[in-house]
């Protein structure tokens, strides 16, 4: 008969751990938190040291009864929730509910769900860490005070259903400020001059650099023409040749933030999806005869540290699979962010010997893709640096200087397995210049000027926004995904071509918060709050003092806002369309998925319809209709005929107004990260246009 009860958060985790612990343990799942602040009221007594009022979460009755009954059958209870603040709080609430003494040695934590890690953890149980609990509780109370005090004001003054929060408001400000920056941007003209040379059978290109060894920017066609006239019919002299060997180091193993960024870039995953799939890999996957196994270490971490055991295992795999030349002889030191807690290891495979290809039969497509990303990143991080041969050549005509650069991978090292992507990714040039000697003379085959204009900073992609929040110290890795989901759910922002664009509603909400609660959207203030919460976790600060310091000033601002915040009326914009049911004008309304058309005669007439954006292309199927831009239930843009349901033409790619020169069928445009491709919908004809 079992003598111990182990409580974890999820059934999957319970199943995995139960298999490792054996018959002496009953393993049950709490299904996450069992207690929380009430939804219907503030739930915080601001006059009594911010005492929280916790209640049992609705719907947990059966789960709690099962836990109580199981506790009666055993001598010992172990609380094995996740190894972070949230997990510590879950354990504390469970202990409180089950009547476990606060100083009982009942808490078990492990960074990976493997047999050895779990068994080792149960040899070293500890007391519940109240510093961790207090840090989680302080964050929860701060968020509740902000949300439940400002949100009703926004409902009253702006629109029902709105919300405000510490991290979400700063995130919204970043997006709005970037949009203002883009709108205020004034493009500046600049020019480039490229000279093409031939040496033997090899052709190469050099760019204009400047005069007398100093870099010079060209801002007008007149400047360019003067240079071109000076170059006419003149030979170039090789003035300087510099050859170097350059090392390129691999990216470190994943943290939560870098995993979210890279999964967005390489796999097109949203942050929320990345965390959901990573949770599945962490909690355990059924691998047939091997049973249920946790495939990765804990996925909420800000550290790049790796255990010595994992390093040795990776070392053996690299030696066997790639050879001695690919081994990194001295372990690389973890380089963490300045504000990193370093509580856990980096995200890595629980065993690097479980190769992605060996797990294809057991993982879903998304699980396999994310596991492969984590596995390859970790293996590459333990491999030798890549070595590149680089060459820089200066070619001159009198005082005018052109510069050519080339590089070639001499030894691929870690690049054999994995190369990190970035939002500003530029492929490593794998092209050496021909052999050139100083004093050598060359005639340019062609000299071409090109006009360019500076572009505004790009809108935030999900990856870029997560990276910015991390760099600024806003929130914590576990908060990024829910924050990005929430600002979209509230329709403060929308995604256009995978970039965040603020809505009119988002800008209005931010204006109100900026005017009356400036500290809520102050980046330095919010970052300091995160550091204060870290101090609470470390036992160096009292949580009540942190909350009180914030609330005393916040309460004063709240009274001013209640008195002086003006009501904002978001007027319905009248469209040119008339309601086909009653003849009254249709107006633009704001809904969950953006704007739509509704009859101005509401509630007498409840007619609504989607806003259809014509793209100037006739329907290739019915010939009578026009192609319009539509959105799927998942907010993905597609194209269809405006005569639907009479015509069912549909395309994910954007139809073009011209036809294929090869077969005469419709051409469509498909965009990806680096270029847009025009291709035929019927044959193999294609055109590629590089994005500038």
Short description:
The chain has 692 residues and is an alpha+beta fold. It contains 16 helices and 31 strands.
Give the arrangement of secondary structure elements:
Layout: E1 4-8, H1 11-21, E2 25-29, E3 35-36, E4 44-45, E5 51-52, E6 55-56, H2 61-72, E7 76-79, H3 85-98, H4 115-122, H5 130-157, H6 166-184, E8 189-199, E9 202-211, E10 214-215, H7 221-231, E11 236-248, H8 256-267, H9 271-283, E12 285-286, E13 292-293, H10 308-322, H11 365-381, E14 386-397, E15 400-411, E16 441-442, E17 446-453, H12 462-472, H13 477-489, E18 493-496, E19 499-502, H14 504-516, H15 523-537, H16 543-564, E20 573-578, E21 585-591, E22 594-599, E23 608-609, E24 613-618, E25 626-631, E26 637-641, E27 650-651, E28 654-659, E29 666-671, E30 675-680, E31 686-690
Parallel strand pairs: 1-2, 1-7
Antiparallel strand pairs: 3-6, 4-5, 8-9, 8-17, 9-10, 9-15, 11-14, 11-16, 12-13, 14-15, 18-19, 20-21, 21-22, 22-23, 24-25, 25-26, 26-27, 28-29, 29-30, 30-31
Helix pairs in contact: 3-5, 5-15, 5-16, 6-13, 6-14, 8-12, 9-11, 9-13
Description of the molecule:
The chain is of the alpha+beta class. It has five domains: 4-128, 3-Layer(aba) Sandwich (Rossmann fold); 137-184 and 459-564, Topoisomerase I, domain 2; 189-249 and 386-453, Distorted Sandwich (Topoisomerase I, domain 3); 256-381, Topoisomerase I, domain 4; 653-692, no CATH class. It is 34% helix and 24% strand. The protein has 16 helices and 31 strands. The chain is globular, with a radius of gyration of 31 Å. The model has no long low-confidence stretch (mean pLDDT 90).
């Amino acid at each position: 008969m079992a003598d111990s009860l182990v409580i974890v958060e999820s059934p999957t985790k319970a199943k995995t751990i139960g298999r490792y612990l054996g018959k002496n343990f009953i393993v049950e799942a709490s299904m996450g938190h069992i207690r929380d602040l009430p939804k219907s009221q503030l739930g915080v007594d601001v006059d009594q040291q911010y005492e929280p009022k916790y209640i049992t979460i609705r719907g947990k009755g059966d789960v709690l009864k099962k836990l109580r009954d199981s506790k009666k059958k055993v001598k010992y209870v172990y609380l094995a929730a996740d190894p972070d603040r949230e997990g510590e709080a879950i354990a504390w609430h469970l202990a409180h509910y089950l009547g476990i003494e606060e100083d009982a040695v009942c808490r078990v934590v492990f960074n990976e769900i493997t047999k050895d890690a779990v068994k080792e953890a149960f040899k070293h149980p500890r007391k519940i860490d109240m510093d961790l609990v207090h840090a989680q509780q302080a964050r929860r109370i701060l968020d509740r005070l902000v949300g439940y005090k400002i949100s009703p004001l926004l409902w009253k003054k702006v629109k029902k259903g709105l919300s405000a929060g510490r991290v979400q408001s700063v995130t919204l400000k970043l997006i709005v400020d970037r949009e203002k920056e883009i709108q205020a941007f004034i493009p500046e003209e600049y020019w480039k001059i490229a000279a093409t040379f031939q040496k033997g059978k090899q052709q190469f290109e050099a760019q204009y650099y400047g005069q007398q060894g100093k870099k010079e920017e060209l801002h007008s066609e007149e400047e360019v023409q003067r240079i071109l006239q000076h170059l006419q019919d003149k030979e170039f002299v090789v003035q300087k040749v510099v050859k170097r060997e350059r090392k390129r180091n691999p990216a470190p193993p994943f943290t939560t933030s870098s995993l979210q960024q890279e999964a967005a870039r390489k796999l097109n995953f949203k942050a929320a999806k990345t965390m959901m799939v990573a949770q599945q890999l962490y909690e355990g996957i059924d691998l047939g005869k091997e049973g249920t196994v946790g495939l990765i270490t804990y996925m909420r971490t800000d550290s790049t540290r790796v255990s010595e055991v994992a390093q040795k295992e990776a070392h053996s795999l690299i030696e066997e699979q790639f050879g001695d030349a690919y081994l990194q002889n001295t372990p690389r030191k973890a380089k963490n962010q300045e504000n990193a807690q370093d509580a856990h290891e980096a995200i890595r495979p629980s065993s690097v010997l479980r190769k992605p290809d060996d797990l294809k039969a057991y993982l879903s497509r998304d699980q396999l893709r994310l596991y492969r990303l984590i596995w390859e990143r970790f293996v590459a991080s333990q491999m030798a640096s890549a070595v590149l041969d680089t060459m820089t050549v200066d070619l001159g005509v009198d005082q005018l200087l052109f510069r050519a650069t080339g590089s070639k991978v001499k030894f691929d090292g870690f690049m054999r397995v994995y190369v990190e992507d970035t939002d500003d990714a530029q492929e490593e040039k794998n092209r050496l210049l021909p052999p050139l000697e100083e004093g050598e003379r060359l005639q340019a085959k062609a000299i071409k000027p090109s006009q360019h204009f500076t572009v505004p900073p790009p809108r935030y992609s999900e990856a870029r926004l997560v990276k910015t929040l991390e760099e600024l110290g806003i929130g914590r890795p576990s908060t990024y995904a829910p924050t990005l989901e929430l600002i979209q759910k509230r329709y403060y922002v929308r995604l256009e071509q995978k970039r965040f664009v603020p809505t009119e509603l988002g800008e209005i909400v931010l204006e109100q918060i900026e005017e009356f609660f400036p500290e809520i959207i102050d980046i330095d203030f919010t970052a300091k709050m995160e550091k204060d919460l870290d101090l609470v976790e470390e036992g160096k600060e009292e949580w009540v003092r942190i909350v009180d310091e914030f609330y005393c000033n916040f309460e004063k601002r709240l009274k001013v806002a209640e008195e002086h915040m003006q009501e904002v009326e978001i007027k319905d914009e009248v469209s040119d369309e008339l309601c086909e049911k009653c003849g009254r004008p249709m107006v633009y309304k704001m809904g969950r998925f953006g704007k739509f058309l509704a009859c101005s005669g509401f509630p007498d007439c409840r007619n609504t319809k989607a806003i259809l954006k014509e793209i100037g292309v006739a329907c290739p199927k019915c010939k009578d209709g026009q192609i319009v831009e539509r959105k799927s239930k998942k907010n993905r843009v597609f194209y269809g005929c405006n005569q639907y349901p009479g015509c069912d033409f549909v395309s994910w790619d954007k139809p073009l107004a011209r036809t294929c020169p090869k077969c005469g069928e419709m051409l469509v445009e498909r965009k990806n990260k680096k270029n847009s491709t025009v291709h035929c919908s019927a044959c193999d004809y294609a055109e590629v246009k590089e994005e500038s």
